[in-house]
């Protein structure tokens, strides 16, 4: 995963704020695309998950939009073999795999996105960047 590091909030497992993050691309849930940023620790964890998928024989092709499939959740719960939605793709070098999330993690991500967009569009006085 390559790109430019910028100070921001990690959207993956640690959920830490105001640290160097890397933009990984957009995820698609309800509403506008979600700008996925992750810290160095979470990027490494994501790359390890991607390698594990590739070692197991690769990932299934991404299904159609909003189509539930049995897969492993790549987000917070990390449960295995449950109904998931493909929210985007993850790539490392020349490899890529669909990024799946279960219903619970998708709802959590959408809640985080709503907060992000609400604060971005209506910053609290004195906190605008």
Number of strands: 6
Q: What's the rounded overall pLDDT mean?
A: 82
Strand-pairing-aware structural class = alpha+beta
Q: What ranges have pLDDT less than 50 throughout 5 or more consecutive residues?
A: 125-129
Main beta sheet: 3 strands, antiparallel
Instruction: Give me the number of helical elements.
Output: 2
Describe this structure as you would to a colleague.
By secondary structure, the protein is an alpha+beta fold. The protein has two helices and six strands, in the order βββαβββα. It has helices at 40-55, 103-121, and strands at 5-8, 19-27, 34-39, 69-71, 82-92, 95-102. The strands form two sheets. The protein has a three-stranded antiparallel sheet with strand order 1-2-3. A three-stranded antiparallel sheet has the order 4-5-6. A hairpin with a 2-residue loop joins strand 5 and strand 6 (95-102).
Output the keywords:
129 residues; alpha+beta; three-stranded antiparallel sheet; 6 strands; 32% strand
Task: Give a summary of the structure in a few sentences.
It is built from 2 helices and 6 strands. The protein is α+β, with helices and mostly antiparallel strands and 129 residues long.
């Amino acid at each position: 995963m390559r790109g430019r590091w910028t100070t921001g909030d990690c959207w993956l497992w640690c959920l830490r704020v105001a640290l160097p993050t890397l933009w990984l691309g957009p995820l698609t849930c309800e509403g506008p695309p979600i700008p996925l940023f992750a810290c160095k620790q979470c990027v490494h964890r994501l790359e390890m998950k991607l390698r594990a998928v590739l070692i197991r024989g690769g990932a299934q092709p991404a299904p159609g939009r909003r189509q539930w499939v049995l897969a492993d959740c790549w987000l917070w719960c990390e449960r295995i073999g449950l109904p998931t939605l493909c929210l985007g793709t993850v790539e490392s070098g020349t490899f890529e795999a669909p990024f799946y999330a279960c219903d619970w993690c998708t709802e959590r991500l959408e809640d985080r996105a709503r907060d992000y967009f609400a604060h971005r569009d209506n910053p609290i006085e004195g906190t605008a960047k």
